[in-house]
Amino acid sequence: MAYEFPEGYDPPDKKSQADAYAHLFNERFLPAQGCAIEIQSLRNEAEALWGPEIVPKLDELLRLASSLQVAMAAYVSDKKDYGSHFANNQKFGADIGAKVFDAGNTINPDGMEGAPNALTMQIGSAVEQVSIYLKTKLPRPSPKERLINPSFHALRVATSITQ
Questions:
Q1: Handedness of CA 7, 12, 18, 21 (dihedral sign)
Q2: Which of 34, 76, 111, 127 is the most buried (most CB within 10 A)?
Q3: pLDDT of 17-61, one tens digit each?
Q4: Run of H or E including 114
Q5: How far is residue 33 from each of residues 28, 36, 61, measured CA to CA in Å?
Q6: Nearest residue to 138 (alpha-carbon basis) of 119, 117, 157
Q7: How many CB atoms are closer than 10 A to CB 4?
Q8: For residue 114, which phi and psi values (nearest 5 degrees)?
Q9: How far is the C-alpha of 9 from the C-alpha of 18, rounded, in Å?
Q10: Residue 9's Cα: distance from chain center in Å?
Q11: What distances in angstroms separate CA 162 from CA 54, 140, 157, one per listed residue?
């Protein structure tokens, strides 16, 4: 993670540390933000093609991305104010930290591994729901068709979208 901080990063104070985290989170979230914009534009097209059933599935994915972005902003804000935001509610601070630094599973107070990261599980579930829905709508070649012509699938998908 240290390589992700701005060049010359040496936190003499909490404000500099907060600025470094803001830089880190902005760089990390940039690809997700691009995907969210693309999902928003495809959402309308998908609704027009297949009906309104896809909309809540895509909206859930976008909501979770927004939740991550809000958690990142809260973490930076807490750092700027010397940890005062989470001082009275350390569990909330730990929940925000878990959202922004997914280390897989939580660590219980006794040092044992706890439950998987809730936000990561929710995002995985939302992606799976979109995937399941799309599999019912997009044409899929047989295994034989894929062996004969690997680009056949891409051609069928492109054709189905333009029809």
A1: positive
A2: 76
A3: 788 888 888 888 888 888 889 988 889 899 999 899 999 999 999
A4: strand 113-116
A5: 9, 5, 12
A6: 157
A7: 13
A8: -105, -150
A9: 11
A10: 26
A11: 18, 16, 9
| Listed residue (60, 74, 78, 63) closest to 17, CA to CA | 78
CA distance 122 to 71: 15
Name residues whose C-beta falls within 8 Å of residue 38's C-beta, 6 or more positions apart in sequence.
none
Question: Are 152 and 145 spatial neighbours (Cβ–Cβ below 8 Å)?
Answer: yes
156: Cβ–Cβ under 8 A, 6 or more apart, which residues?
139, 141
**Which residue, 105, 103, 77, is CA-closest to 15?**
77
List the structure tokens of 83. Answer: 């940890």
Both structure tokens of 41: 């534009």
Cα 11 to Cα 82: distance, rounded to the nearest angstrom:
13
Asked if residue 75 lies in contact with residue 21, where contact means CB atoms within 8 angstroms, the answer is yes
What is the per-residue pLDDT for 21?
A: 81
CA distance 112 to 106: 9
For residue 28, count other CB atoms closer than 10 A to its CB.
Answer: 15
CA separation for the pair 64, 56 (Å, rounded)? 12
Specify the pTM.
Answer: 0.69
